[in-house]
Amino acid sequence: MNDVLHEAPAALLTINGVVIDDVAIAAEAAHHGDAPDPLDAARRALAVRELLRQRAVSLALLDEGALLDDAAVDALLDRELTHVPEPDRADCERYYAQHPARFRRNDIVYASHVLFAMTDRVPLAPLRQRAEAALADVVAAPDTFEAVARASSNCPSAEVGGSLGQLLRGDTVPEFETALFDTDGLGVLPKLVNTRFGFHIVRIERRVPGDAVPFDEAAAQIAAYLS
């Protein structure tokens, strides 16, 4: 609401031509006795209320000259807060440029992991502590990864030293996929990856780059996401 609030002489307020007199201000001030300046607080409250009333009238949510009521306020807030403008091409292009890793295809990652699985029988805090300790050991001595996987991982891949082989986007749960594909470099990731299955120590062995999805192919998906 780019409206103008200004004080008129004699302590009156005018809000876009609507005058709020000193009687109304004094009455409202009685509700702001705890404020440092009750009159100032009253003026601000009445100004906001009048601006809301005028906005409701402009949207045909309230008749001209009618007092603002709770129903009109609810209708106004519902309209203003739920109405999200449709993204235009510039919005979509900006998002595409800011998130290049999300618009690729045929990227391949070769990875291994050590899973500390969450179950109803295992308290979460001690499980995380075990995973953090194991991660610290592996970061300090990367050549022990396979041995740690065989000894500690709760995934069947433990039998092959934690190897998951080659992975494409869509092969794993989203949080694990993000850790694999939205990062760069090789080796053990410096932080645990938390998924619905538990805590993972992840090692990236190889990356085979795919290609970028052209903007025109991704535009509809981006617009739907931003809407």
Automatic annotation (TrEMBL):
UniProt keyword annotation of Isomerase present: yes
Pfam families: Rotamase (PF00639)
Name listed for the protein in its UniProt record: peptidylprolyl isomerase
Broad enzyme group: isomerase
Highest taxon in the source lineage: Bacteria
Statement: the UniProt record of this protein carries the keyword Isomerase: yes
Keywords annotated in UniProt: Isomerase, Rotamase
InterPro entries per record: PPIase_dom_sf, PPIase_PpiC, PPIase_PpiC_CS, PrsA_foldase
PROSITE patterns per UniProt: PPIC_PPIASE_1, PPIC_PPIASE_2
